[in-house]
Amino acid sequence: MTSGAPAPASVPAGVDPYLPDRAPSGLDVDRYDLELDYRVTTNRLDGVARVHARAAADTDRVSLDLVGLRVSRVLVDGKRPGRYAQRQGRLDITLARPVRAGERLTVEVHYAGAPGPRRGPWGEVGWEELTDGVLVAGQPDGAPSWFPCDDRPGAKAAFHLVLTCEAGYEVVTNGVLVSARPRASRVRWEFDQPEPTAPYLATVQIGRYERTPLVAATGGTVPQDVVAPPRLRAAWAHDLARQPQMMTLFVDRFGPYPFPRYDVVVTDDPLEIPLEAHGLSVFGANHVDGRRGSERLVAHELAHQWFGNSLTAATWQDIWLHEGFACYAEWLWEEEAGGRTADAQARAVRTRLRGLPQDLVIGDPGRDAMFDDRLYKRGALTVHALRLEVGDDAFFDLLRAWTARHRHGSVSTGAFARCVADVTGLSPEPLLDAWVDSAPLPDLPARRR
Ligand SMILES: [Zn+2]
C-alpha cells in the first residue's frame, strides 16, 4: 500500500504532484461566488469571483489559477492588496498585511476576456465554444479557463453562480436553479450549490436546448431532467429511458444518491467522450443514436456522482478510485439489464488486458497515463477481485459504507484500504498491493462460496 506516499520532495505542500508547475494557493477555499456576464455571440466573458477562504498557513501572499483571462482589479476583504501580478496561468497576490493560518479572507477578482480551452498535457480542456453555445469540460485542469480557483481535486468548495447571457438559450450549471430572470434581451440565471465540489467538476453548459423531465421530483425519487436540442428528442428518449432504473440499481448497491438532482445535457455538437460534472453529465449528439449504443456510458457517468464527485480523490494519483468504480458500475448495469454477468465481463476484460503491456501501476499511473483505458479496466477488475475475495454481501456493504463515510469528501487508496478492513475484516494489503501498486496483472481470486 503506497497510497498516501509522500509527494516528491520537489513538490511543495498544497500542490498536486501531477500538476507540479502550480504554486500552492495558500488558501483553503470554502466557497466560490461567481458573477458572470457572457455574450454567446462574441464569446466575451466579464466576471467577478469572490473566493471565500481561510489562510492555509501564516502568509503574506496567496495565489489562484487563472488562464487566458485578464484581471483588472483585485480586492482582499474589500481593500486593495499590496500588489498582484498574472504570470504562467496564475494570479499571485501580495497581501497588504500578513494573515495567520486559519484566518478568514475573501479575495475578489474582476476579470474579462474571450475564454477558451487550456492547452496542456491532456489536450484542450476547459471552456469551449460550441457551434451555438458553450461547453465546459474541466477535467483535469480546465477550471482556471473560466474562473480563478485553487484547481486541485482535493480543494473542494461550495459554489454560488450567477450567469447572464442572451435570451433564447438554456443555461445549465451545478447545483439547483434559484431563478431565471429576463432582463431586456438577456436572462440572469442564478444557481446555488452548497455541497463541496472540486473545481474541475464545476461547469457551464449553454445551448438552444429544451429541458424535459425524465423523472419528476415526487415520492423520494431523484429528479432527473434531460436538456437537449429538440431535434434529438426521439433519440435521447429511447437511449436514456433506462437511466431511472440505473439510478434505482445504483442507490441500492452504492447507497443514497449524493446530490439533490441529476441532469443530463446532450449537446447539438458531437463530443469525443461524455463527461461528468457535479450533479450532471454531458453527452454529445453522437452519444444518442436512438439504439442505446452508448448506454454503458450513461451508467458510467451516473456512477461518477458517487465515485469522483461525492468521493473525490485528494490527488490525481488516485484516479482509479473514480474510473475503476465507474467502469465497474457499467458491468453491474449490463448484468441488471439482462446481459453478461459482471463476473463474465471481468474475465473477458482480464483476458484482453493480459495481451496488453503490463507497465501501468494504477495507484500511481503518472500524469500521462491517468486516462489510459487500461487504468479504467484494471480499476474495475480490482473492485471485482475484492468482491470475489469478500463475497457479495460484504462487498455491497463495503460500497455503501465507503460512500457514506466519505460523502462529499476527499479520498485516497489508503482511506479505501482502511474502510475495507473495517467493514469486511479482510486485510486488503496483499490484494491492493498486487492490483493497485504493482504492474503485472494478477489472477482473479477464486470465487467465495
Ligand atoms: Zn469516467
TrEMBL record:
User: Gene3D superfamilies given for it?
Assistant: Neutral Protease Domain 2, tricorn interacting facor f3 domain
According to the UniProt record, what class of enzyme is this?
hydrolase
Q: Which SUPFAM superfamilies match?
A: Leukotriene A4 hydrolase N-terminal domain, Metalloproteases ('zincins'), catalytic domain
Q: What Pfam families does the record tag this protein with?
A: Peptidase_M1, Peptidase_M1_N
Q: Where is each Aminopeptidase N-like N-terminal domain found?
A: 31-201
What is catalysed by this protein?
Answer: Release of an N-terminal amino acid, Xaa-|-Yaa- from a peptide, amide or arylamide. Xaa is preferably Ala, but may be most amino acids including Pro (slow action). When a terminal hydrophobic residue is followed by a prolyl residue, the two may be released as an intact Xaa-Pro dipeptide
Q: Which UniProt keywords apply?
A: Hydrolase, Metal-binding, Metalloprotease, Protease, Zinc
Its cofactor is:
Zn(2+)
One annotated GO molecular function is: metallopeptidase activity
Q: What are the recorded Gene Ontology BP terms?
A: proteolysis
Question: What family does the entry list?
Answer: Belongs to the peptidase M1 family.
Q: What is this protein called?
A: Aminopeptidase N
- The organism encoding this protein is Cellulomonas triticagri
